[in-house]
Design goal:
alpha/beta, DHBP synthase, eleven-stranded mixed beta sheet, 11 strands, globular
Length: 277
């Protein structure tokens, strides 16, 4: 039976979180507040639950949901080949408005959709969200609305759109909170040798570069390495005498970083369609 809990009441909040935890364990969907908008959540490790989430929104597998985590040490359990630079950004901006696209751990038994081997991770800065994630573990989360409709800013808004497809609605009041702009998270592709912004959002490029100077902005292309200059024709090349130390040859430079493919950001929710929690 679908139930709404008023999480501004301590007693209702405790009951709601308990019911939400039980619903997640039963592969059902839950709506809860985040630091951006309301999200609809399902067990990230249950293909059945993730499918139910996508069906509830009217969405297909081509737009897999991101995964929200309760703490930063969950990062290495869900992603592999996490670079030092990606880790710096996570430590600087989690919890908060930064989503990192990373290589998913290949050993994990989950199916989020057509991810092409990647996963988008974020740690939200919201008390109710953090409490729920601590109880349930990682959750697949998308904005709590039907695809093509406005994102829900209250649990009541979400219920109008998602109705009985959700087991538990946790009402935490209007989101974003008063005094915040409700900007969606910044998305950074961290699957290649250079970090790339694929959606601008709550964390500015300047803020990112304060921690990792080499982060590429949205649509920015890295400068190709310039070819080494050849010696002038008029300078003769002489052989070294046997007792002279030969000059070391110049090291072979690596290929330009823009030749290395990175994860296609379109494998996750399109930033142009609706806010992502």
């Amino acid at each position: 039976m679908t139930t709404t809990y008023n999480c501004t009441s301590e007693d209702q909040r405790a009951l709601g979180l308990e019911h939400a935890q039980r619903a997640i364990s039963e592969q059902k969907c839950v709506v809860f507040p985040t630091d951006t908008v309301y999200g609809i959540a399902a067990d990230a490790f249950s293909p059945q639950a993730v499918t139910m989430l996508l069906v509830s929104k009217g969405r297909g597998r081509s737009m897999p949901p991101p995964v929200l985590i309760p703490r930063i040490n969950a990062l290495d359990g869900l992603a592999t080949d996490v670079s030092a630079d990606a880790r710096k950004l996570a430590e600087a901006f989690w919890p908060g408005g930064l989503t990192l696209i990373l290589h998913a751990q290949p050993s994990l038994d989950w199916d989020l959709g057509d991810t092409k081997g990647t996963v988008a991770l974020r740690m939200p800065a919201d008390e109710v969200a953090q409490e729920l994630l601590t109880l349930t573990g990682p959750l697949a989360v998308s904005s709590a609305n039907r695809t093509g409709h406005a994102a829900a800013q209250t649990a009541a808004d979400a219920r109008e759109q998602l109705a009985e497809s959700v087991e538990v609605y946790l009402e935490g009041g209007f989101r974003p909170l008063e005094g915040t702009e409700g900007v969606p998270s910044t998305i950074v592709d961290a699957t290649g040798p250079l970090l790339r912004v694929v959606r601008n959002g709550a964390v500015s490029l300047q803020q990112l570069r304060e921690h990792v100077p080499g982060v590429l902005g949205l649509g920015e292309i890295p400068m190709a390495e310039e070819p080494a200059e050849e010696p002038a024709d008029e300078v003769p090349v002489t052989e070294a005498s046997p007792d002279e130390t030969p000059v070391a040859e110049a090291p072979v430079t690596e290929a330009s970083t823009d030749e290395t493919p990175v994860a296609d950001p379109s494998t996750h929710e399109s930033p142009t369609q609706e806010p992502r929690p």
